[in-house]
Design brief:
InterPro entries: Pectin_lyas_fold (IPR012334), Pectin_lyase_fold/virulence (IPR011050). About 0% of the residues lie in helices and about 50% in strands. The protein has no helices and 27 strands.
């Protein structure tokens, strides 16, 4: 197993911009490391090849919690940039009573062989910009039995007013026993989070959703999902400028359930409204274009470019209250 890298184990803010990074041959003990003295060359720098971390304008307490850069209380005004990490649990993890990150920027961060994901945002975090973040999950070992769920970016709690743009996540995966539900998404927004915008994002080869959204007032720009079990998964109303869905698939036939291009959780009492300005779909099989489960939904596709095998169903499931509109082009002729 490659070394576990912990980025930015800070117990006190440095006097100015700096670089910190630590590498252990195995997961370190839980601890807070006091970097009270800068190294001899000046600044705050411990290098390990091309793996490094860079923090600016730090005014809070960042500490390591075993395998992550952890935020354990409310901090604000932080810029976290230029991070490369390999074989960490999560690179940035907000957790604990009252913990949140406000009015901060995370940009140019990358994680490879991630065990749990790249960024976990919880609590009442707000005023965040996440830009140019990329992550690749550690491929589940078929011989290892059940493996932890991986999520590229996870947003929960009452997190709000967040902009995410120019991100890419792939191979977020989980392995379980045959016939059981395998989770893991490229990006997840839970139900109490709100006012979140996502622009220019790509999600590839996830064992569940490329995007899984339950939050409120969610706006999507140009998003692409490819070869995830359910490329786009919507539990609540959303507005999207452009969605591109390519050949949903399961990484392993033991993963239970069906695949989906665009999946919607219906509701007969308050049907969600899904508005897509342009939908592009490509497929190698006859996976339905829309899958609506457990109730009715309103789906408006204003324009489309759909190239799939002949006979592919437009809609699977749903209820009599479904309302599907296909814009001036009319319904695709499949």
């Amino acid at each position: 197993m490659p070394p576990v890298l912990i980025q930015g184990s800070l117990s006190h803010p440095p006097p100015g911009p700096g670089i910190v990074g630590f590498t252990w041959p195995k997961p370190p003990p839980r601890a807070v490391y006091d970097l009270g003295r800068p190294p001899k060359m000046g600044g705050w720098e411990v290098k390990n090849g091309e793996i490094y971390a860079h923090f600016d304008a730090l005014n809070g307490a960042l500490h390591d919690t075993g395998r992550v850069l952890g935020i354990a209380r409310q901090i604000s005004g932080v810029t976290i940039r230029d991070i490369r990490a390999r074989s960490v649990g999560r690179l940035i993890n907000i957790r604990g009573m009252g913990a949140c990150l406000k009015d901060s920027l995370i940009e140019d961060v990358r994680g490879d062989e991630l065990l749990r994901g790249l960024i976990n945002i919880t609590g009442d975090s707000s005023g965040l910009v996440i830009r140019r973040a990329t992550g690749r999950g550690l491929a589940p070992d078929p011989a290892a039995g059940q493996t932890p769920m991986q999520i590229g970016i996870s947003i929960s709690g009452t997190a709000h007013d967040i902009l995410i743009e120019d991100v890419r996540f792939e191979q977020m995966g989980q392995r379980r026993e045959a016939g059981k539900y395998w989770n893991s998404d490229g990006l997840t927004i839970e139900g109490e989070a709100y006012n979140i915008t996502i622009n220019r994002a790509v999600f590839l080869n996830c064992t569940d959703g490329g995007v899984d959204i339950k939050g409120r007032n969610i706006t999507l720009g140009d998003l692409r999902a490819e070869r995830c079990r359910r490329n786009f998964r919507f539990w609540s109303s959303i507005t999207a400028a452009r969605l591109t869905s390519i050949t949903p698939s399961k990484s392993d036939p033991a993963n239970a359930g069906t695949t989906a291009q665009v999946w919607v959780q219906g509701n007969n009492t308050t049907p969600p409204t899904i508005v897509i300005e342009h939908l592009m779909v490509r497929a190698e099989d006859a996976t339905p274009i829309l899958t609506i489960e457990n109730g009715s939904a309103q789906v408006v596709v204003k324009s489309h470019d759909i190239q799939v095998p002949a006979g592919t169903p437009l809609v699977r499931g749903g209820a009599p209250g479904n309302r599907i509109e296909w814009g001036p082009q009319g319904a695709p002729k499949l």
